Amino acid sequence: MRYSEFWELVDEVFGPQVGRSLAADQVLGALGDRTSHEALDQGEDPRSVWRALCDAMEVPEQDRWGSDQRRPARR
Questions:
Q1: In angstroms, rounded to a whole number, what is the distance separating the alpha carbons of residues 6 and 45?
Q2: Contacts of 10 (CB under 8 A, 6+ apart)
Q3: Over pLDDT 70: what percentage of the chain?
Q4: Which contiguous run of DSSP H or E holds residue 33?
Q5: Contact 3, 46 (CB under 8 A)
Q6: What residue spans of 2-74 are helical by DSSP H?
């Protein structure tokens, strides 16, 4: 997942205002007590950050990948 895809999903799944606020303010234990924004700035993989944010916000799996269902390839 690219950084741009991360931000597109944030906007689509949470809405632009709420999503950007969550990314900036929501501290996530799964990311070492960092926000999504901090984790990305420190080089964390966007896919890992996305999963951590969705897990914390209890986003159902079927709703995590947006309307076009762009599921990332498994590694």
A1: 10
A2: 19, 20, 22, 23, 36, 53
A3: 89
A4: none
A5: yes
A6: 3-14, 16-25, 36-41, 46-56
